Amino acid sequence: MSSLINILLQGVLLGALYALFAMGQSLVFGVMRLTNTAHGDFIVLLVFVLFVLTNLAHMPLWAAVPVLIGIAFCGGYAVQYTVLNRVSSRDPLPSLVVTFGLSIVIQNVLQEVFSADPRSLATGGFESMSMALPGGIALGLLPLLTLVVAVVATLLLQWLFARTPLGRVFRATSDDREIVQLMGVSPRRTFALAMGIAFVLIALAATLYALRTAVSPSDGPALLLYAFEAVIIGGMGSFWGTFLGGIALGVAQQIGFHIDPGWGIWLGHVLFLALLTIRPQGLLPKTA
């Protein structure tokens, strides 16, 4: 029984990281109906920005993270305003092609500058610290921190969209950008602001991912796949659905790892395909 509980708990903690990966993707799709195929590479890019801040600029991690968040917001705003707004339309193909091109560029630039070697952040042993529970269950402090950040991010996003004037602008622009434009709101700035917020979420995911494991420039496509699966499992544009989708994916992978080390990733993909067949709209397809 304790073994089953341990598998479920470790799956939830792993799924919280996947939920953070997917939260920015869910926000971008919910507001702009844009599928960002460079999402995973943006996570990796911000990991290497954090590496530059901590290892080359010699900033302490507690000071580097706020700087990274500021860089991420400005970068996301600029990318959307100058590049992606030009291809944002009801036809998804132009944005898919452009973000795919950005993905290729980011991977090659990172490999050229940093080489293909994985890099990791020095955490002073925090990544290996854990707390003991009855039954021989140990919960890592870093995964617990990831779970807390994922829950808080989901709560804040839900509050932003449901309770604030900015959230109403996001929802109105998503529903009918032409009408919103007639009312004096600039969809270009609205979309850029949404992308900036999405990049803040990406920065948080990048930080926690870099603290957890070594990162290489070619990791982006795998991270995009996890984020995409979490969004689809949870329901496109639903923040709590995305959170639950990440948790479901993590639990499925953890069960697979317990059965056989080679089954973990595969079982997560099986869950994704099964839910896509049985319930294609996702677990919670609509954000209130």
Automatic annotation (TrEMBL):
Primary subcellular site in the record, as a coarse category: membrane
Transmembrane segments: 12-31, 38-57, 63-84, 136-161, 191-211, 223-251, 263-282
Pfam families referenced in this protein's UniProt entry, alphabetically: BPD_transp_2
Record key words, sorted: Amino-acid transport, Cell membrane, Membrane, Transmembrane, Transmembrane helix, Transport
CDD domains linked to this entry: TM_PBP1_LivH_like (cd06582)
Cellular location(s): Cell membrane
Protein's membrane topology: Multi-pass membrane protein
Record family assignment: Belongs to the binding-protein-dependent transport system permease family. LivHM subfamily.
Protein name, entry field: Branched-chain amino acid transport system permease protein
